[in-house]
Write a structure and sequence with these properties.
alpha/beta; Nucleotidyltransferase, domain 5; 2 domains; 5-stranded mixed β-sheet; 7 helices; 12 strands
Length: 237
């Protein structure tokens, strides 16, 4: 069983290649984290090819592809899912996508209090969700810190995790509980994706070909179009 997993929901590309058999999934693995800003379209496929070649594999030797489907960077998610869909369609290798928030939570699910994964959504807002008692307590959210602090009330301690945990934690003002910040996420995410993707594939099978990225917020282009339409309607009134 050879599984390739990627995350492109942030400024860094996270990759993992796990090799083994059905009874020993992590017999051998390699993890790479490449901080390349916004160059995912140039870097992703060469990185995947290099990772496979380094382990004497071709794409055809893979048994499962795994990626995050969002929320996160609009462009990064599209690039990641499109690349794996292309490989899946060309080779017949099944593809499973995993919620970015669920994957980030999966890295620290052992924490006894509430867990809040966060990704900077720009405009002083964050993509996030709240987890407690081993399960999701909210849907994926696009909120500012004061809005999230309202949801944090009632939990004596919270762990802030995710790519932008420190930036989020620094803005917390009204929450009176104990705040912990996870700064070791990058070491855990790729292998967590391997595990979650394999479990999802065994439980639900591969994604439908129509499955695409999960967006919590409309893109800037969509918002601009809405504003243009609104302005035109006001002029016509």
């Amino acid at each position: 069983m050879n599984i390739l997993a990627i995350d492109t929901s942030s400024d860094a590309i996270h990759l993992a290649l796990a090799m083994g058999d059905d009874s020993s999934l992590f017999k051998r693995y390699e993890v790479q984290i490449v901080a390349n800003g916004t160059r995912h379209s140039e870097s992703l496929v060469p990185l995947m090819l290099s990772l496979c070649k380094h382990n004497d594999l071709n794409f055809q030797d893979l048994n499962l592809l795994v990626c995050t489907h969002g929320p996160g960077s609009f462009t990064g998610l599209r690039i990641g899912m499109s690349a794996l869909k292309g490989i899946s369609l060309a080779s017949g290798i099944p593809l499973c996508s995993v919620s970015t928030m669920d994957a980030l939570y999966g890295c620290v699910h052992h924490f006894p209090g509430a867990v809040i994964p966060v990704i900077d959504a720009r405009k002083k807002r964050f993509y996030t969700a709240l987890y407690a008692e081993g399960k999701r307590q909210t849907a994926d959210l696009d909120v500012d810190v004061p809005e999230m602090e309202i949801l944090m009330k009632g939990y004596p301690s919270v762990l802030i995790t995710g790519f932008d945990a420190t930036a989020f934690a620094e803005k917390i003002k009204a929450y009176e509980g104990q705040v912990f910040v996870d700064e070791t996420l990058s070491a855990n995410l790729p292998l967590t994706l391997i595990k979650m993707g394999w479990e999802k594939f065994q439980r639900d099978g591969s994604d439908d070909i129509g499955v695409g990225p999960t967006y919590v917020r409309k893109s800037d282009a969509e918002l601009a179009l809405q504003e243009k339409i609104r302005s035109m309607e006001e002029k016509n009134d």
